[in-house]
Structures are given as C-alpha cells and as structure tokens.
Amino acid sequence: MSVDIAEQRLLADAARQGDQSAWEQLYRNVYPRLYAYATARVGTGSAEDMVNETMARAVAGIEKFKWNGGGFDAWLFGILRRVCLEQYRKNHNVSARWDSLWIDHTDPGEAMEQQAEHEALRRAFANLDDNDRDILALRLISGLSAEEVARLAGKSPGAVRTAQSRALASLRRLIGQQQL
Q1: How far apart are CA 87 and CA 50, in angstroms?
Q2: In whole angstroms, what is the distance from residue 19 CA to residue 39 CA?
Q3: CA-based nearest residue to 83, from 129, 37, 127, 128
Q4: 3-state helix vs strand vs coil in the chain, percent to 5
Q5: What pTM does this model have?
Q6: How far is CA 35 from the centre of its chain?
Q7: pLDDT tens digits for range 26-44
Q8: In the chain, how many H helices and how many E strands?
Q9: Could you tell me the domains of the chain?
Q10: Could you read off the pLDDT of 140-179 as tens digits, one per residue?
C-alpha cells in the first residue's frame, strides 16, 4: 500500500489525535523501508527491534513532529537513524551490516553468479565511508526522496543528489578495483 503525501498528512494528524488505525496505516506503509534500512545498519537479528523502538519513540513523541521538509517518513527515518546509532555505540565495535539485503530466487547457476556479484557489491558497499553508505542506504535502500534525506542530513536536496552521485561513483570504483 502506497500512501501519497496528502493522505499521509491526514493520517499523521489523526495519529497525533490518538487514532490507532491511522498509526497502523502509517506503520504498514513505511515498515518495509524502515526494516530494510535497519537491516542494513544493524543486521537482521536486531532490525525488527530497531524498527519497533523507532515506532515506540514516534508514538511517544508525535507532538514533536512538524510538517516541514521531508514529511512523516523522513521524520521516522531520522528517529531510526538515532536508534541504530545508539545500538552501534552500545555494542562498540559492531560494524554496520550490509550482507542481508539481497535475496535470490533464481536457478542455481544464475544464483551462484548473482551471489558472486552481490558479494562484490556488499564488500564495496562496506568499504564506502559512513556518509556515502548512509546517503545510499537512505536514497536507494529506504527509497527516501532527496528532499527527505536533505531534511535528515541538514543539507539541500541538490547537495544530497550530488553526494549520492559521488557515492555511486565511489561504489563503482571500489567494485572495479575488486575485479582487477
């Protein structure tokens, strides 16, 4: 189910008034993207807990939400970023995980080839600097718009698009280096 921004605004306003069905619709709409982002940051073992903590904080802090910049989804991703960062700090040397994002449902030969390609991509992705990984995770994995990411990052949408372009170029370069 995809919710347009006008409907999302109505749902967020209803959620602010305590409407549980509005919260459920908002949650169902954003959960797959929140889960994908959390999985990328903390791995599958903790991703659901991170999303649940995010939603608990959102419910508790809905009065702090304001319609500016990226909208409700961007606000949730901002909370999730903080939750994941707290988890990272709590676990000290636990690195972000990028290895459980791609699942194959193909024939065995094709799956082996895709697995090798995905492993190269995962290694390259893991070798990006934190800012590049974060921009790509928010834009490509979570599907946030440049405007939503800009609000989260405190940048202009143009700066986000430029950062994304540079991050993709770095990713291509890293993949190319692996193939040598």
Answers
A1: 8
A2: 29
A3: 37
A4: 75, 0, 25
A5: 0.58
A6: 8
A7: 888 889 989 988 888 777 8
A8: 8, 0
A9: 5-179 (1.20.140)
A10: 877 788 888 887 788 888 999 999 999 988 988 888 887 6
